[in-house]
């Protein structure tokens, strides 16, 4: 398969003004980089990894975190979240979303443009970026809208947003599909010129009117209008061909079907610059969950069938699907505790994502921690050309790191999550793996489930 999607960090566009890195030293003791080898200590100085070795000592007064053989990974990167600010601060804010990200092991997230107002001009993007840096719990990158007001009619100014202080590098109308092929063609040509990524929410709306569930036996039995696979796959196929003919970098949001996997595989075999993500919920949940009519399971695209989850899992292992993204989508209880068809689509994901991927793929033995670092940190950072994240754990690299405890269980309770909303589909489920600590440029942002500072 082609390496065309592997990028050289020297060619990445810069990021906006960053909060100052933590001054002084931080010493992490008893960690195993990528879960390999013997325990080592990692000394961080002024936000950069200064030394890795055995029995390192720090100067007096230096913060020391003592661990016992925990897994050290590059800080996780999520290129698909909804932090709801501006506009729906009753369900999530940049502060609560950043806290959830830090607790989940993330050092960078990309928050979608379907805010109110829509992130379709530089001033809104800059406001999100600067607020995120003031909080300094996680780098919150605003995603710019592809079309003004997400209306699918007029392109936004990619160049102005890319040049703004927010340094917008990814554009998406996520929540809606850019279904008009002429608008998408213009978008991809414009994006190629600006060297920004387009992320498509693949859903032909003419095939999903009133749909709330995957089109299949479960929806038929429950009397719910079906959302067929072809509504996703037809757009994936069209956009892959557009990327082939017009050359822009195209990313498929939340791949959910077996057919999408086949199309992404085809695109990669043909050297087309197409990448794809999958959510934890599309890897482990199916539409059988809908039997209870619980609105917490309504999501877009919908939970599908086992043949889809199996194909997506194998594709993630094989590298056909590039990365995991949560599509973290907070909603208030009044938006979820109602008739299934009226529930807002979306689920929380930031605090449960790594534990699910670690348990399903690493603890069960199909993959190792290096693979998890690839699909949850390195590839997502490469896809959006984000410098400083998803980097090797090595001297001289920025200290964006996640410490994972692969043996510490915890039980998911919506009310205990840092997120302002409680719509987790994993309520009362036991997770086998925990985040022990998250470090952003040398600053501890979360430690043993507590958000720092
Ligand atoms: Zn979406």
From TrEMBL:
Pathway per the UniProt entry: Pyrimidine metabolism; UMP biosynthesis via de novo pathway; (S)-dihydroorotate from bicarbonate: step 3/3
Residues reported in the UniProt entry to bind Zn(2+) 1: 80, 82, 174, 327
Protein name (database record): Dihydroorotase
Lineage: Bacteria, Bacillati, Actinomycetota, Actinomycetes, Mycobacteriales
One GO BP: purine nucleobase catabolic process
Binding annotation for Zn(2+) 2: 174, 201, 254
Residue ranges constituting the Dihydroorotase catalytic domain according to the UniProt record: 71-257
Family stated for the protein in its record: Belongs to the metallo-dependent hydrolases superfamily. DHOase family. Class I DHOase subfamily.
Gene name linked to the record: pyrC
Reaction(s) the record says it catalyses: (S)-dihydroorotate + H2O = N-carbamoyl-L-aspartate + H(+)
Cofactor: Zn(2+)
HAMAP family registered for this protein in UniProt: PyrC_classI_B
Top EC class for this record: hydrolase
NCBIfam families tied to this protein: PRK09357.1-1 (NF006836), pyrC_multi (TIGR00857)
GO molecular function: allantoinase activity; dihydroorotase activity; zinc ion binding
Co-factor: note: Binds 2 Zn(2+) ions per subunit.
Organism: Corynebacterium amycolatum
